[in-house]
Amino acid sequence: MKAVRVPKLDAEKVRRFAERIGAKDKSRLIVVRGEYVEIPIYEGYEDYFRDYEIVEQENPVFSKKTDIYEILKEKIPKDLWEFIPRRYKIIGDVILVKIPEELEGFKHVIGEELLKLHPRCKAVWRDKGKEGMLRRPNVELIAGWGSVTIHRENGCLFKLDVTKVMFSPGNQGERMRMAKVVEEGEVVVDMFAGIGYFSIPIAVHSKPKRIYSIEINPDSYEFLLENIELNKAKRIVPILGDSMHVTPEGVADRVVMGHIFCHDFLPTAIRALREMGIIHYHESVPEAVINRPIKRIEKACEELGKKVKILNFRKVKNYSPGVLHVVIDALVY
Q: pTM for this one?
């Protein structure tokens, strides 16, 4: 779990900045170690604190208020403590939590305790993962009621139904980064727009000429339309369909490929660019083959007679043990 290590004199300034951009991990306490202070942050925000040391907290101090593990130890037999979830997601006023099969008989207890911890929330859903290319959530209601919510993040509103579409708070830093890198007057193609994960922040915080937001999942597309209205994002042109077939060609200064299993779409992304442009390519990659995303981009460009320069290679978050979610910024010309 990441933290920013800063001198005491800078601590208040950095804390306020971390809270303002949504980087501060509220489940952990700020810790003083000698002349330094460790401010806990979510993964994916490291680049915002380049002036300071980022440390890995092996023994973080959790806030009593949000330490579900300590609370559940009083409700669950000791031989099952190792399976108690320590983390969960809050999306709007809905909680998502992963519960192993070993705690099947305690799922409702876990749900009720989470609602007690977060009285502003209305429901707790058990997260069983995602299904298929459309990444449909597999969830189960274990406490409370309701699945439609509005999530607020970095000045943007995202309406969604957690039973129909996914939302990853862990990608928040990357969503905000994209809003900062897009330059005024650019045309952007968002090939896997979902409910507007990248398109909405870009439209709200940047001044692009136009954003083509493509989504194949009808449920996600309907929420994309609602989120365009909620955020008054008039620069977004929504497109329902398969990016492989409906992506406009030769129009983009920048292409966002936010799906982590989309390497087959690289030629389509390259053709969407003007003579020169930038592709932001996401991939889930084992650390053992960490250069695979770059090789895939280089191969796709070579086959289309294009050159490429890798501008940035960064980790978004851990996807699973030994597997990283990374993004590559590639200049294609």
A: 0.79
